[in-house]
Amino acid sequence: AQSVTQLGSHVSVSEGALVLLRCNYSSSVPPYLFWYVQYPNQGLQLLLKYTTGATLVKGINGFEAEFKKSETSFHLTKPSAHMSDAAEYFCAVSPDSGYALNFGKGTSLLVTP
Amino acid sequence: KAGVTQTPRYLIKTRGQQVTLSCSPISGHRSVSWYQQTPGQGLQFLFEYFSETQRNKGNFPGRFSGRQFSNSRSEMNVSTLELGDSALYLCASSLASTGVGYTFGSGTRLTVV
Fold it and tell me: How far is the C-alpha of B77 from the C-alpha of A99, rounded, in Å?
């Protein structure tokens, strides 16, 4: 079964600093990969997704992620953190022929002034 | 364009009761999935429907059931509620027939007392 592992349940960065949230996947076939963000008392919002093609994926709010097959990774980055980026971030994987998203445990991002 | 609508937003039930949650997908979306989110287990897939047919089911007991109507609206039902069923239940809809590009609703917060 396909799965993802998010390294670090809590990440703290200063406002203006680089954001790096790590995600490694386990898959025997090329997967579909996603990053979602969740603000308190809300649902999940899709930040970006990788299906096929370009391995560097740009998403909303200045986030991007790079699919690295050799490292089985799909890390999320943002050059400069904003206070509004504080939220829970989830990496997810979907089998190419399946219908369920397998989520990581999530990483809580704290942005300090 | 309206998003995924889940009703009610909050619900308090007593152990042993049953509950029905509703999800209205984005217009034109035919795939609807349900997820349970708890602090301990994270986000777990419940089931997915496409054109009124359940195509995939997660590892949950038979107390959890769902259905999809001809207008793509979906309901999930939990019978004989247990304290451990307290969770945020998220519905997601997709235009495509595979698990790419799901849009999530804000969820229903179920508390079992």
Answer: 20
Q: Which two tokens stand for residue B18?
A: 């049953």
Residue to substitute from A32, A38, A99, A105, interface B, most B β-carbons within 10 A: A99
Total residues found in chain B within this entry: 113
CB contact under 8 A, B103 and A103: no
| Distance, CA of A7 to CA of A108 (rounded, Å) | 11
Pick B43's closest partner by Cβ from A90, A96, A99. A90
pLDDT tens digits along B24-57 = 999 999 889 999 999 989 999 999 999 899 988 9
Beta-bridge partner residues of A22: A7
The encoded tokens of residue B58 equal: 């997660």
Q: Which residues of A touch B33 (CB under 8 A)?
A: 99-101
Distance (Å, whole) CA A100 – CA B60:
14
Beta strands in A1-113 (DSSP E): 3-7, 10-14, 19-26, 32-38, 44-50, 56-58, 64-68, 73-78, 87-94, 102-103, 107-112
**Residues in chain A, pLDDT under 70:** 96-99
